[in-house]
Amino acid sequence: MRPLYIYLSTFLSILAISCSKDHEIPIADLEYKEFRSPHKKHPRLDIYEVFFFSNIDLDSFFIKKGGSPRLYCSLENSNNFDIKEITQNNRNLSGSFYFLNQNKKQSGKFLFRSEVFFYDKDDEFLNKKRILKLLSNKSCIPCKVEERFYLNTYKPYLSNSMCIPVKDILKVINE
After folding, report:
1. What is the dihedral of CA 41, 47, 50, 51, to 10 degrees?
2. Which of 6, 11, 54, 165 is the most core-located residue (most Cβ within 10 A)?
3. Burial degree of 153 (CB within 10 A; 0-12, 13-18, 19+)
4. How far apart are CA 43 and CA 30, in angstroms?
5. Residue 17: is its pLDDT beyond 60?
6. 34-43: pLDDT as tens digits
7. For residues 73 and 141, is the Cβ–Cβ distance under 8 A?
8. Between β-strands 140-147 and 70-74, what pairing exists: parallel, antiparallel or unpaired?
């Protein structure tokens, strides 16, 4: 009976893995542009704006695949973090993003705006004191576009990393 259980569980594992399709979205190169406070502040949340460029039109790829990606910036991991580390990471700067415009004639880059907030899975939103403590020994915060395609069979997506300089973040937080 035991060998049958092993064969059956192995078969089901292989079947589940093989059903995970490639999303066929190219790995985007991101380039940081600006970190700032929004013009209209939220009454209770400290929301910030991150502007960044991508070498591909992320919106069109994710709309076709039914995803809702986010910009994810790790306050705990190295530059080259992966999906597993995102799952285990407690402190981050993250939020959804949308396409602003494209000036293809000059740069061939797509400009995006992300509304982000500092978050801790245990404590919900991070206050200014905790943010400053987390940033105190860093020079940059690594960020990637991340999508896990929940309720879908696509493999998770991660772009290449970009860096938000901590000095830019501190300048805005301390305003």
Report:
1. -40
2. 54
3. exposed
4. 31
5. no
6. 999 987 777 6
7. yes
8. antiparallel
